[in-house]
């Protein structure tokens, strides 16, 4: 019951305050991870694993220690501590804060403004994107980050409490920093990429199922089954294919990265992406979060009733 209440409190804090504007913990962690990477980098997978462990595990241990100390003092103090960590880890409001400007620029025909806005949330080159490709990029970002920044953090908190959400969010951040297949990071970042993949195996599939439940279910299941296996990421594939199907929108396809166009499988079905698909993707994630919070409360009530039966 406490875990469900903490999750609701964290989502409410995020809705009210959004991301911390000053001294965001993930910014500080990024500096810490950068310092470790500069000191330990080598073209070695084992060195990358050592660096990952030094970057992440001390903070997971600290969260476990502080949570235990808080619980010894008061259950309320432990709940406040956990809610604060989960609030810092999720980014539900941030999805809208970054994606809505893209939709607003597309509404007014401001393609340059839309390209600039989407360039702040995706890693692909945006200078030559058409309005449809801009809308597709923003929609894909919302769907994928719905898992990475929202559902994954919620799930690992509900499973393992404060240490779980710290482990998941820091591992996800390191994947974003070290997981690229560049010559410098291809071997060193292998551990970061593989650990993030492992931690997302369950959240990604629950996120995909949530999209199917909250959108066009038949289309979502069909796209997940047929299209996800062709995607290069074992976790992004189910999330984005199911999300595109749930929205009945066409995503995927060729996209420009580092000066050249890369062929990617097609995702979804139905209409071309536009400003409306961005907003519907945001609504899909929000509705999914509501379903998760209600489900966590119901499970807590059932568990409590069974314990006292």
From TrEMBL:
GO terms for cellular component: plasma membrane. Its main location: membrane. GO terms for biological process: cobalamin biosynthetic process. Pfam families: CobD_Cbib. It comes from the Bacteria. This is Cobalamin biosynthesis protein CobD. It comes from Marilutibacter maris. Belongs to the CobD/CbiB family.
């Amino acid at each position: 019951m406490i875990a469900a209440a903490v999750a609701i409190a964290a989502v409410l804090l995020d809705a009210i305050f959004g991301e911390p504007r000053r001294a965001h913990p993930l910014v500080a962690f990024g500096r810490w991870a950068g310092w470790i990477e500069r000191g330990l980098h080598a073209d070695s997978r084992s060195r990358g694993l050592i660096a990952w462990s030094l970057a992440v595990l001390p903070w997971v241990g600290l969260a476990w220690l502080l949570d235990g100390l808080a619980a010894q003092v008061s259950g309320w103090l432990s709940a406040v501590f956990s809610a604060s960590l989960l609030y810092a880890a999720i980014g539900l409001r941030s999805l809208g804060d970054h994606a809505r400007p893209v939709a607003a620029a597309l509404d007014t025909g401001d393609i340059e403004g839309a390209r600039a806005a989407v360039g702040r949330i995706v890693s692909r080159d945006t200078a030559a994107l058409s309005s449809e490709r801009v809308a597709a990029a923003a929609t894909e970002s919302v769907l994928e980050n719905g898992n990475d920044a929202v559902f994954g953090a919620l799930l690992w908190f509900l499973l393992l409490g404060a240490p779980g959400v710290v482990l998941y969010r820091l591992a996800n951040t390191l994947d974003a920093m070290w997981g690229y297949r560049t010559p410098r990071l291809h071997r060193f970042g292998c551990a970061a990429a593989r650990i993030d993949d492992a931690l997302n195996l369950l959240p990604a599939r629950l996120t995909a199922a949530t999209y199917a439940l909250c959108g066009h279910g038949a289309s979502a299941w069909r796209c997940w089954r047929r299209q996800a296996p062709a995607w290069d990421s074992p976790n992004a594939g189910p999330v984005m294919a199911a999300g595109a199907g749930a929205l009945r929108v066409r995503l995927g396809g060729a996209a420009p990265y580092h000066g050249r166009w890369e062929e990617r499988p097609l995702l979804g079905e139905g209409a071309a992406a536009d400003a409306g698909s961005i907003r519907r993707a945001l609504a899909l994630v929000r509705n999914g979060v509501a379903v998760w919070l209600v489900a966590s409360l119901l499970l807590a009530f059932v568990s409590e009733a069974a314990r006292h039966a």
